[in-house]
């Protein structure tokens, strides 16, 4: 069956409440009964919940074959905990038929790829699939299709019962003996625990993993001891050098600076750019540079930002310290500057993934977002964006908060160079749709700006401001004229991953890539 | 059927999972599936959730006959919101067969008594029943027996599904247009919203009622907008003069001071009185004075308190400011000094009722409590305590956190004068058991100290410290010799209230009192 972004969804994936994507807002107003954990009553006082090993924690929580285990990725590429726990579950305890529900997966969980190949891990539910995990899934080694969800889709799926977490293993920087936990106060700090908090309310069992035990009570905390079964102390929860980076250097690539300046100009041309506006952007490349150009416009206009949302870098903390930002609502910290900032300023507030982006709660923060600036691996002439599969069709990306902020914001701007190496970024059909075109408003490239024709209002604002723009088709043609028309990828029938829209409908599928035949 | 404190529980109240009280720790280790709300998906952005009237909020949330509505009592005797909402539901909208689930009820909700008499309110679930509400319930006017729960029993009952809240009406000091709410920042501040927070996670619908709308986002907040359906602005949420009192003056009654000093001496004689000990006490009478004598012992011994728990007064904030208390874990604020203190010091932390005292979560703070000092209306020779019914058998009290802190703490001290007016406080059988004797360790009166024989360890500590103590029977005999043996109360068969133990079993029942016959 074809869905609202024109993708053919195999019938066998539908039914039992699973539908194809029907467009933005389709689920709005529907009622549902929230899912719920099955938990143990700890009526009798315990002095401590500290266990001697991960294995002891697993046994206390009744870990067995067929369970779903969750992990978070606040420790990013430096995380030791997910791979460490999986090793205990599979190699030491011999468990099988395991499903992994993670906020993301990447190189730090490389051993998961082995367990997938061995058939021990049979299910993967995640936002990101990078590194070897992406390769083995794309090669069809995972027993069931991986389920790719956005950061808002994850808490939605947990609350609607699409995924039930048996045991959550949550890496934290510091904990007391009873599980009051924080992303700071330890040897390896990550700042916000926004990716971890929601699981503590919905998992049957919660195991805290830390390298730093502090005095009871470890308050204020991000995770409350009332949700924690066991606390497990390990040597190191992560590699500090990979958890946070030094402040990302502002790009000096003139092409990126030009795109950033154009993004800021587009923002400034909108009527939403007024005192109290809200804003989100990523790190790296032109995104970070947008902050600098935006600051200029804010100072010129004499206005301040009400709140900055999402993953946080030192750049936005600096804007707050200059008095230009009222609140930072922080789901994860990208650099040491943000980690040092978060709990020192009461206006730099940690929020969890449901507060951030869940389309099934009573109003996530993305719904109050004026502007979001996002990148893309590909964007097609229907403004559909792909951030999950490479030009070779292999899983190597992460939707993250992309589809959520795009849907919630008043103005979603994609910034990307027209081509990357031999690949046309603006194309006729993206390999995989991860953010539907009805949520994307403006595209800024190094060869021009295009506005989604659905947004005639924004076209008017740009015209009024004298900002030139072209059709997205002309950008695609320009790209093809530079690189050549890309060859179609060749797929087998097997679905290796399902891309869920944030509301739980099916947005696209990723099929097994045909092995390349060498001539 | 007789329960573990010797009370006869009518068979018709048992079955369907309802059991009689079996003693402390009976439910420990049992698993249960948490209850869950049925909530609306707000996928499409809304600019604001502000409605024009309480009635509009009720209609938006589908208020109808037979529903259960919840209220909290952080605004104490000054609360306007519960009575205001009930008036709209019953007088304006004509609803009937209503059940009220409140953290407490008292004089501020006097109109509830009328609605009970009119048969509109047919169920009451609460901790406190004071004022006219207690009188009409005791007179048998409520259609179903009232259910009396402790502060920990309430979140337990909500999570086990014993009570399902259809709409929670939550008074707050300030809110933004989307429902991020706080107990400060308004015209009428209450400080901690610890009594309100838990309902927001388990009620189908949540209506915020405030007199102060502040700029979005109102962060840090106690209640998150993701749980809020409507925000309703009223003229005043309460009477500021009754919400908080000025700092309670330290008693100068020599009898009360002597009892307070003896309580502090008992605490200091215990081995738990060491650096990092934890402590809870109430306000008023000898309780507040305990702080002063305890300070003396702490300074002498050179030790500090790890955390103070529960309802908070300026006295304990002052101890923190002197560097003698590490953390205050605050469920409600008793005076203006505590309200002014709570969000200014990051170590003065708001906690909700589940974190405080829920015996069905994974370890509430009461379970880490070393000492609690509590009052009593009556205590009997089995150390059973009554804090709900007066000597006339009429409902006029509140268990609050009494049974929870008694059960969780290492040493529970009851402080009470031996007699009050013509009533013996220490008696053979309390009118109603609200805290079972197996949770009560020491009794301090103005005529001597008694230790529960279950606690031979504490008897040893007191002997070692040279603190005299007597049997509780001798105190009871002394009381009867002073006042005379009390007449037995005369009851009818009808049960007007069920006193649930914190674990959900039935601890006692209150029957309809026989109308007094005038000679």
TrEMBL record, chains A, B:
Q: Which top-rank group of organisms is this from?
A: Bacteria
- Give the GO cellular component terms, alphabetically: ATP-independent citrate lyase complex; cytoplasm
Q: Where in the cell is it found?
A: Cytoplasm
Q: What is its main location?
A: cytoplasm
The record's listing under InterPro entries reads:
Citrate_lyase_asu, NagB/RpiA_transferase-like
Which E.C. number(s) belong to this protein? 2.8.3.10, 4.1.3.6
The GO annotation for biological process reads: acetyl-CoA metabolic process
MF terms (GO), sorted A to Z: citrate (pro-3S)-lyase activity; citrate CoA-transferase activity
Provide the protein name: Citrate lyase alpha chain
